[in-house]
Every structure is written in structure tokens, then in C-alpha cells.
Inverse folding.
């Protein structure tokens, strides 16, 4: 791992539970759809906040593979995006049906059959546009954007679903539901089937700081200081005063930073501050509405921050990799979204 270059693809307020599902899905679900997947992925979890990384070489290879599908099999584009919409409808319906009670094993299996096979088509919609040449991007962007907007709520809803489920379990078992967000997928399924929970001390370790890697479909976890040390190595922190990213919407502003990881945590946010986060999703919209500009660690052409900033006409830079490490609350910065540069002043 020491010699590998990792790219942060998304970050935000997500559960450890979700990571243990997604890690397997990036390996298995992608193979079910494309015959190939990502052999190694990495999640860093700290007290309810997650950053997700892919090895740079794998990201490039898989991104160009998706772009080749558009180039060589154009009829596949609408077909894949139509399937995504159907899967979106099915998944939202089943989560809505199961949200008010702890499901039976049979009911939960109904959810899993859809959820475990959703990511393959979602990845096609989300990642392909970042690797298309200009003429293909112009031609197909409206279709990809339409599918993106249609599926916008799925992963916010899946987080709400998991958090609601562990809250019900916590109330029943008299256990802190925040710690129960750190169940592994197998442990959650074991509880649903047999009512058994793991040692609470293990959950506390995972909640405080944990790093999950999936390699060839197998999960490996490290905890505590070892996880934090590995995060620092991956983050490539340095003393530079300039940060570069991808322009989502142009413009240039100067303002003070406010770093927000969890949109559900109540934070004072002053009109005209610069919103800095791992990535945004619909729950961030109230902050985005007040922000003078938006800067994220992760994202691409169809990320939530890119689409929403264009609608709001607010300067936005995504895919900086390390804005949340590079900047601190109150830093005065210039966001030069004409050139994709953030400068500390």
C-alpha cells in the first residue's frame, strides 16, 4: 500500500455498515454487470464520517473501460440508464416498505437482492462522463444528467434506512445506536436472523477510527492510531498554499472557510462563507444556498456539488482530493473557479 497512489472519490457522513456492503459491491456487483470490477478499494471511517479511495491506476483503467462502452456500443447508454431508473424505483419502494420496523430475514433479503445489484449501473451513470471526450460528452451528457437526477436520493435514502434500522435495534437492545452504525453487513444480517450483536467494545473501536480495505473481495480492517497513520500517508499533506481541483462552475470569490462533514449536525454558517466538505448531497443544500463558493475533496462532472452549483450559479471546485485536510475553519481563501485553484491568503 505504501507505493500505491490513491484517489479520493467521495466522502461524507456515511455508516460503517454501508462501507462493508459497498466494498463487496465494487468487487462483485461490477463483475456481474461488466465482467470486471475494482480489485482494491479503501474506506476510512471516523465517528460517522467516511472517505472512499480507489487506486489511481484502477480508476483510470475502469473509467476508460466505461467510456469505451459508450464509444463502441452506443445503444447501451440508454439501456443502462433505463435499467438504473428501474432499479432506483424498486429500491426506494422496498426501503420505504421496511423503514418503520426491524425486518424479518425474508423481508431484509428482498432489500438485499436489489441493493447488492444496484451499484453496477449507478457507477456507469456516475463515473463514465469523467472519461468521455468532448464530442461524446456533449452528445450524451443530458441522458447521464437525467439519470443522475432521477437516482439522486438513493444513497441518502439508504443511509437513512440503515440509521433508522440501527436506531430501532438500539432502542430494543438498549445500545447506543451510533455504535450500531459500525456493524458489519454480516453482523447486521446475523442480528436480523438471530438477535445477536457483537461485543460493544469492537463497535466502539470501529466508530472512533477504522480503515477498511477490500482486496480481491476480502475485507481487512485496522483500527485506532494505525488507521489514522495510514490516512495521513494517503492524504499526502504538505505545507503548500495552493490547492487544485476540477471546475464545476466558474467564478472567483474571497471568503472564510467553514468545513462541514455531517449535514445533519447543526453548525453556524454565515452567509458568504466558503463551504468546504468531502462531497455534498441533498442535505447540504441549505449550506450551499448561503455559501459564496463550494469546495469539495471528491466529485466529478455529475456529482451533486457540480450539478447544484451550476443551478445556483455559485463558484465550485470539486475533486481537490484534500481540501478538508488542507483548510481549517476560519481560513481566508480565494476560490478561483475560473482556473480550478484555491489559495490560502
Amino acid at each position: 500500500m505504501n507505493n500505491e497512489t490513491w484517489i479520493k472519490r467521495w466522502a461524507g457522513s456515511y455508516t460503517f455498515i454501508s462501507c462493508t456492503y459497498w466494498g463487496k459491491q465494487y468487487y462483485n456487483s461490477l463483475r456481474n454487470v461488466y465482467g470486471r470490477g475494482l480489485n482494491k478499494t479503501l474506506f476510512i471511517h471516523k465517528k460517522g464520517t467516511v472517505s472512499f479511495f480507489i487506486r489511481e491506476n484502477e480508476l483510470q483503467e475502469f473509467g476508460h473501460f466505461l467510456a469505451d462502452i459508450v464509444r463502441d456500443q452506443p445503444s447501451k447508454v440508454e439501456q443502462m440508464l433505463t435499467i438504473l431508473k428501474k432499479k432506483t424505483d424498486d429500491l426506494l419502494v422496498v426501503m420505504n416498505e421496511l423503514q418503520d420496523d426491524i425486518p424479518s430475514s425474508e423481508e431484509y433479503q428482498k432489500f438485499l437482492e436489489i441493493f447488492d445489484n444496484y451499484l453496477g449501473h449507478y457507477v456507469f451513470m456516475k463515473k463514465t462522463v469523467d472519461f468521455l471526450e468532448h464530442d461524446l460528452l456533449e452528445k450524451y451528457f443530458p441522458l447521464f444528467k437525467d439519470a443522475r437526477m432521477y437516482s439522486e436520493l438513493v444513497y441518502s435514502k439508504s443511509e437513512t434506512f440503515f440509521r433508522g434500522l440501527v436506531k430501532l435495534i438500539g432502542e430494543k437492545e438498549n445500545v447506543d445506536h451510533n455504535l450500531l452504525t459500525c456493524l458489519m453487513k454480516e453482523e447486521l444480517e446475523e442480528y436480523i436472523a438471530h438477535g445477536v450483536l457483537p461485543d460493544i467494545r469492537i463497535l466502539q473501536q470501529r466508530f472512533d477510527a477504522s480503515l477498511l480495505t477490500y482486496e480481491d473481495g476480502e475485507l481487512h480492517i485496522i483500527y485506532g492510531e494505525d488507521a489514522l497513520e495510514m490516512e495521513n500517508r494517503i492524504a499526502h499533506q504538505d505545507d503548500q498554499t495552493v490547492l487544485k481541483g476540477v471546475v464545476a462552475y466558474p467564478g472567483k470569490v474571497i471568503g472564510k472557510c467553514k468545513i462541514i462533514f455531517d449535514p445533519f449536525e447543526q453548525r453556524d454558517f454565515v452567509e458568504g462563507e466558503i463551504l468546504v466538505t468531502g462531497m455534498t448531497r441533498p442535505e447540504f443544500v441549505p449550506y450551499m444556498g448561503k455559501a459564496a463558493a463550494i469546495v469539495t475533496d471528491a466529485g466529478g462532472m455529475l456529482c451533486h456539488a457540480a450539478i447544484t452549483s451550476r443551478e445556483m450559479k455559485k463558484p465550485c471546485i470539486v475533486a481537490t482530493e484534500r481540501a478538508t485536510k488542507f483548510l481549517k475553519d476560519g481560513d481566508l481563501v480565494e476560490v478561483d473557479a475560473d482556473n480550478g485553484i484555491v489559495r490560502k491568503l
In short: The longest strand covers residues 6-13.
